[in-house]
Design the sequence.
């Protein structure tokens, strides 16, 4: 058995998880309408769609929500035309968009999960345990968006928060402390904002934090990258090991 355990950064908040040759792609095909955030680069997009290593034989595709910087239905349909056996799991809104753009009626493995806010649903796909947790999306204009955080368990446990707001209401009822999380994938405010760091420490138990959803450096007019890194440096002695996933293609071994 392949004993590799790695996470590769592929887009704005998108990662490819490889655990013992089980491959899970989260938010990996996107075309961001928000200019400062990274779309999936053409080279990686073509590799994913055409199943070129390391993006061959993807077992599961997870989509946290339907926003353009996390999701592109047309790209996902192009992928499914060539990889119809991949299980795709997301909210009903995202799945309905995929169904709409499919060019044929071929049976594909689309799974809709819409747990109530702060509740979860579980599904097992070929031995990979997936827990989808509905969390409030960041931003007052997104209160009606069903954002799914995902816990992936297959020898290790990885938690991807999607665009979950760093508020205690998203965490206090979930008992995430019971999960010994090997890697927690978060947006940059979870490191740069003091109350967000406290939420991670108080409500989760994780060994490593991977920061995604960072803007393009050349478009970072608010200096979000610099602020996040400085905040981490000031607090790293009392915080959790944190890795900033800035460059597309960057791979972290677990």
Sequence:
């Amino acid at each position: 058995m392949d004993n590799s355990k790695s996470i590769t950064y592929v887009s704005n908040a998108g990662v490819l998880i490889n655990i013992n040759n089980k491959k899970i792609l989260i938010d990996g095909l996107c075309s961001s309408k928000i200019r400062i955030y990274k779309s999936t680069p053409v080279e990686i997009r073509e590799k994913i769609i055409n199943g070129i290593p390391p993006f061959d034989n993807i077992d599961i595709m997870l989509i946290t929500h339907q926003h353009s910087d996390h999701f592109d239905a047309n790209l996902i349909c192009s992928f499914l035309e060539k990889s119809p056996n991949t299980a795709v799991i997301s909210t009903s809104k995202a799945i309905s968009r995929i169904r709409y753009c499919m060019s044929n009626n071929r049976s594909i493995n689309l799974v809709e999960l819409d747990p109530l806010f702060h509740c979860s649903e579980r599904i097992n796909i070929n031995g990979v345990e997936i827990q989808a947790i509905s969390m409030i999306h960041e931003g007052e204009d997104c209160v009606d968006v069903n954002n799914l955080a995902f816990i992936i368990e297959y020898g290790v446990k990885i938690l991807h928060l999607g665009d979950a707001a760093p508020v205690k209401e998203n965490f206090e009822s979930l008992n995430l402390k019971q999960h010994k999380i090997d890697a927690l994938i978060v947006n940059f405010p979870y490191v740069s904002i003091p109350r967000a760091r406290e939420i991670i420490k108080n409500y989760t138990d994780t060994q490593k934090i991977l920061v995604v959803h960072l803007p393009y450096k050349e478009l970072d007019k608010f200096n979000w990258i610099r602020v996040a890194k400085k905040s981490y440096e000031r607090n790293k002695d009392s915080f959790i090991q944190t890795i900033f996933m800035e460059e597309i293609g960057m791979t972290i071994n677990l």
About this structure: The chain has a mean pLDDT of 93.
